[in-house]
Amino acid sequence: MTGNHKDKTITRRRAIAVTGGTVAAGGLAVAGYQSAFADTDTTADATDTASATSTSTGDACMTLMTSVTEGPYYLDGALVRKDITEGKSGVPLTLRLTVVDATDGCTPVKGAAVEIWHCDAWGYYSGYTTANPGGSAPAESEDGSTANDQTYLRGYQIANGNGVVKFETIFPGWYTPRTCHIHVRVHTGGEKADGTYEGGTVNYTGQLFFADDIAEEIFTLEPYSQHSGSYTTLDNDMVYDGGGASSGLLTLKAVHKKDPSKGYKGTLTLAIDPDAEGTGAGSGGGTPPSDAPTGEPPSDAPSESATVSASASS
Q: What pairing do the DSSP bridges indicate for beta strands 264-272 and 92-101?
């Protein structure tokens, strides 16, 4: 993608706790967002059971996931919550991940904590909103949302008895020199505490990837189209190794085939060794600003209950 925009100074937006359902300027209609995430408990449980059964049957287990770099934009203390959007605008993405033990016939890993984090539609990460995403993009502060600058698009979910976790988020944007991706970690042996997950072992550190044709179509839509420049395809990415699902390539299904703005559902099975440690190697993928924050989210960070209340009110 190419295009020219005047350079703008990137400034840090003040952190504001989410207190209601907000759709940011240039974003999607609430109806479209809700339809993408519509999934009753009964249907979800049936799907999860079928998924776990089909994964663990057969004589051979899928290939063990290959750990890769955690990247430069990690922050400790992400919150345990299903909806991580905090009002950030973009194409809805429902993410369903199944954690299985690759050393034991792909049996579900109940209680595994799956942590994800990714950039917003313009390429900015929470906690690092002064890091230039490359190309030409509006300042992160111009998105119009009420998202907390240190917590948006980050979160944990705890795997159910079938090893399944679900997240409600948005399709990530991109930043130079990376392709579109989501960071993921799988933890075991820890516990929920004070709204986050503490202790245990990191068994897998990886990244989730998106087919080029789908990503490039999404990036022609608002608000993604306001970020112009050279997008890195999968073949040219410094992290993705071309291994398909075992390398983190998601299976994507459009909510409405003829209208990609309505959202996607992404699925992947994460085959790990729950007895191994996999914290990733190096920190490739860009350099964060020198004043990047560390430690836990601020005390006014939006909680799971705030997110649920916001969804209900919208």
A: parallel
Buried b (16+ CB within 10 A) or exposed e, 269-279: bbbbebeeebe
Is omega for the bond preceding 72 within 30 degrees of 0, making it cis? no
DSSP 225: G
The pLDDT value given to residue 288? 54
Taking alpha carbons only, the member of 36, 33, 72, 303 closest to residue 183 is 72
Give the DSSP per-residue string, 102-168.
TTTTTEE-TTPEEEEE---TTSPPTT-TTS--SSB---GGGG-----TTTTTEEEEE--TTSEEEEE
Could you tell me the pTM of the whole model?
0.77
Give the ranges where the chain is alpha helix by DSSP (H).
Answer: 30-37, 41-56, 212-218, 304-313
- φ and ψ at 93, to 5 degrees? -135, 120
Question: pLDDT per residue over 98-142, tens digit each?
Answer: 999 999 999 999 999 999 999 999 999 999 999 999 999 999 999
Gap between the Cα atoms of 180 and 194, Å rounded: 32
The better pLDDT of the pair 20, 151 is held by: 151
